[in-house]
Amino acid sequence: MPQFDFDTHNAFNLDEIYSVSGFLSLCHSTIENNIPTCWLKGEISNLSRPASGHWYFSLKDERGQVRCALFRLNQRNIKFNPENGMEILLHAAPTLYEARGDFQLIVRHIEPVGVGNLQAAFEQLKAKLRDKGLFDAKHKKPLPAKVDAIGVISSSNGAVIQDIIKVLNKRYPFAEILLFDCVVQGEGSAEKLAQALYAADKSERCDVLILARGGGSLEDLWAFNEEVLAKVIFATTTPIISAIGHETDTTIADFVADKRAPTPSAAAMMATPDKLELLTKLSRLHANLLQQMQQYLANYQHQLEQLNSKIPKPNQQLNVFSQRLDVLHSNLNYYAKTTLNLNQSKLNTLFEQLKQHSPNTDITHKKELNQLAKTQLRNSIKRTITEQNLNLSKLMQNLEKSMRSSLEQQQNKLSMHITGLNHLSPLNTLSRGYSISTLKDNRVLNTTTEVKIGALITTRLSDGKIYSKVEKIEKN
């Protein structure tokens, strides 16, 4: 690296100054040319799965961490589901992501520590289906006592169907054998097995079904460890016997099926009423040989992949651009969300202002004021009536008091008038020896000229009346 003397003006040449992109390109080439592809062990953290299908995470231990990228094309042989906190072993090539200057690992392959790739996926799915109750004994259907037709879901090219036919011909030749042919290995085989099993169940022609295939490695038997097949097995109404691989081979289909047979031949024996045992040594040896061949093939395939990973591939730049696209897509989503939130805030503000100028608000306010005025008027009328009632009550009391007082005064005056009238009363005069004479028409006689001889007069005394007839009139 050039040495600079900052105390002088001409200590270095301008040609010795790197641009940022040039320096990062130099680092990128240095890392990829000098650091080989290697295996690392650590714990997954910060795992993300963007829409592009690539996986990004950090591999860490107690002292450090490094960013990792596992592109979609390198995921095809990974069957388990990586999770944060999982300890893994990964095979990766170091590189530098020049767009950000980040050191990272381009992952070629990962495996869980302690178990293989497929074994981890097997344990994950097994735990998931167990929690959902697909393995519970209460869902297991009993095998029928009488069997007229046996449905076999397997490949017509394999030895499985021939073994089953051979056993049934010796043990129970009366049963009809219906083969639902399908592939039992390879990509898409789990979906095809599920379709064949569904068709066999819906045909309602079989008393019992045998889901079978020969032995093989975990990779060979992987179609029977897929969730799509397990769900169809659980939903069937026809009893199912699983006979997959060897006795030591255990698949998810074995846990979900109603019965499990160690071999397809044993499944044929289990499905028929006769309990005779058949020798399956040749079938086992063939399966073991096939398993060994598959194991050798898998080892050579793994070595080939290691050699292939060391050859520079033209898709490395494509991976870099794909990763950059993921970053730009993430930024675009962030800006889109920010703009949407800002516009939504402005819209809410305008809506609130519109609500304030809405005639409905003014009408509602005036209605509230009218209701308040109505309530106040009603309360004022009630108070006025109460006050007038109190005043009326006081006036009534004063009137009664005044009437009593006036009545007493009138009674006193009346008593005085009565006393005066008593003094002036003719009856009082009569008691002193006087009398009053009246004519027939009750006119009082005041003079002698008012009466004639022969007239009838009435004389009133203090103790009674005297009726008399005038015989003589004398004048003073």
From TrEMBL:
Protein species of origin: Bathymodiolus azoricus thioautotrophic gill symbiont
Species classification: Bacteria, Pseudomonadati, Pseudomonadota, Gammaproteobacteria, sulfur-oxidizing symbionts
Family label: Belongs to the XseA family.
Localisation: Cytoplasm
HAMAP family, A to Z: Exonuc_7_L
Domain OB-fold nucleic acid binding: start-end pairs: 18-111
Keyword Cell cycle in annotation: no
Gene: xseA
Name of the protein this chain belongs to: Exodeoxyribonuclease 7 large subunit
EC number: 3.1.11.6
